[in-house]
Design brief:
This protein is of the alpha/beta class. The protein is built from 14 helices and 13 strands.
Length: about 350
C-alpha cells in the first residue's frame, strides 16, 4: 500500500517524524513537501535532525496571500496525486498545506487521515481554524490528540470517524530529549519566547504592545523570531524596544527543546510550543485570547494572557500540584494511527 504524507510547514515536520519512523515496515510511505516553509531553519534542518527521509516530492510554493498560496499548492498536489496514485493520504495540523492537501485528495476520492483532528479555538478569524474545520469535514479518519478534541468531533457529527489516540508530538519530544540529554546550556536565567500568529504580528498596535511588554520583563527574554515576525517588524518600521528583550533567529527543533527545558518559563502564541512547555513542566504564558489546548489551562500549566500583563508577576513559579498527567497519550500514538489506517483499508477492500 502506498501512503503519501503531505506537509509544508515547521509544525508539520514535528508531527510527521513519528509516522515516518513507525511506518517503515507497514506500508510504502512517501512524503510530499509543498514548500510553504522553505528557509533551511524552518524546513530542511527539521528533516535532518529528526531523521526523516528527504521528501520524495518537493513543490516550490513559497509565500503569498492565502488564496494565492493555497491555490498554487492545490494545483501541484492534484497533479502529483494523479501521477503517484497513493492509496491513502495523511495530512497534519492546520496550515494552508493541510487545506490544499485535503481539497486535492478528497476531490480525487483518495481516503484521508487527519492527524491532530478536532482542535477548535472557536475563533473563525484565525486562518488555522478554517483549515482545521475543512480538514476534519473532508477526512475519512480523524485522529484526535486529546479528550476535548475528540469531544469536538462528536459535537460536529464526526464521532464515527474519530479516534482518540494521543499526540504524536510526545514521541518527537521524547526522541529529542534522549538525543540532547548530554547537552547543557549556560546557567543564565531567561524566559523562552516566540510570537508569530497573524493576530499578533500584523497589527502595529498589537506588535508594539507585545514587544514593549516583553522588553519590560524583570527577567531576560530570549525571543526566537519566526520570519513572519521579522518581516512585520520591518514592514511597520518598528524600532524594537530593548530592555530585557533580545531577538534571535529561529532555532532547530532540538535546540529549541533544550532552550525551553533550561528556561524559567515560556511565553508564546504557538500551539506546539504550548504543548511542549506543558510536557517539559514549564509554565507557559499564552499571548492569545483563547487556546485549542484547553487541557493545559485546566492543569494550570498554561495561562491565557493576551496582553502579557502578568509578566511583572511571578507567573512562572509552579506549585507542587502542577503535575502533567497523560493528557497527550502514552507515547504510542503513531502505532495506533498506522494500525487504524491498515484496518480501514483491509475493511474497505
Ligand atoms: C504557518 C501556519 C501556522 C503555523 C506556522 C508555523 C498557515 C495559514 N499558517 O504560518 O498555522 O503555526 O506556519 O511556523 O498555514 N517565510 C519565510 N521563510 C519561510 C516561510 C515563511 O521567510 O521558510 C515568511 C514569508 O515572508 C511569509 C511569512 O513568513 O510571508 C509567513 O509564512 P506562511 O507560511 O504564510 O505562514 P506562517 O506565518 O509561517
Amino acid at each position: 500500500m502506498d501512503v503519501m504524507s503531505i506537509v509544508g510547514a515547521r509544525p508539520q515536520f514535528v508531527k510527521l517524524a513519528p509516522i515516518s519512523w513507525a511506518s517503515q515496515t507497514k506500508f510504502n510511505h512517501f512524503i510530499l513537501h509543498t514548500g510553504q516553509h522553505y528557509d533551511a531553519s524552518l524546513s530542511e534542518d527539521f528533516f535532518t535532525k529528526l531523521s526523516i527521509p528527504a521528501p520524495n516530492i518537493v513543490l516550490k510554493t513559497g509565500s503569498g496571500t492565502h488564496g494565492d498560496q493555497t491555490s498554487r499548492m492545490l494545483l501541484e498536489i492534484e497533479k502529483s496525486l494523479l501521477k503517484n496514485k497513493p492509496d491513502h493520504v495523511i495530512v497534519y495540523g492546520d496550515t494552508n498545506s493541510t487545506l490544499a492537501g485535503v481539497i486535492a485528495a478528497s476531490k480525487l476520492n483518495i481516503p484521508i487521515s487527519h492527524i491532530e483532528a478536532g482542535l477548535r479555538s472557536g475563533n473563525r478569524r484565525m486562518p488555522e481554524e478554517i483549515n482545521r474545520i475543512v480538514a476534519d469535514h473532508t477526512s475519512n479518519l480523524l485522529f484526535a490528540p486529546t479528550q476535548s478534541a475528540y469531544q469536538n468531533l462528536w459535537t460536529e457529527g464526526l464521532g464515527q470517524y474519530s479516534f482518540q489516540v494521543g499526540d504524536v508530538m510526545l514521541e518527537t519530544l521524547k526522541y529529542v530529549l534522549q538525543m540532547t540529554s548530554q547537552n547543557h546550556s549556560g546557567k543564565d536565567e531567561y524566559f523562552f519566547a516566540t510570537i508569530h500568529r497573524v493576530e499578533n504580528t500584523d497589527s502595529l498596535e498589537r506588535l508594539n504592545l507585545l514587544l514593549t511588554r516583553l522588553s519590560q520583563s524583570p527577567v531576560k527574554i530570549r525571543l526566537y523570531a519566526h520570519p513572519r515576525l521579522t518581516k512585520m517588524i520591518k514592514f511597520h518600521e518598528l524600532v524594537v524596544p530593548t530592555g530585557n528583550l533580545e531577538l534571535f533567529d529561529p532555532l532547530s527543533f532540538d535546540e529549541s527543546i533544550l532552550m525551553m527545558k533550561n528556561s524559567l518559563g515560556v511565553i508564546t502564541d504557538s500551539g506546539g510550543i504550548q504543548k511542549e512547555a506543558f510536557l517539559l513542566e514549564k509554565t507557559c504564558l499564552i499571548a492569545r485570547q483563547e487556546t485549542e489546548w484547553v487541557e493545559t489551562l485546566e492543569s494550570k500549566s498554561s495561562i491565557l494572557d493576551p496582553n502579557l500583563e502578568l509578566l511583572e508577576t511571578e507567573w512562572w513559579v509552579r506549585s507542587a500540584d502542577m503535575k502533567n498527567p497523560e493528557v497527550f497519550g502514552d507515547g504510542t500514538t503513531s502505532l495506533k494511527i498506522i494500525e487504524q489506517i491498515l484496518n480501514y483499508h483491509s475493511m474497505n477492500k
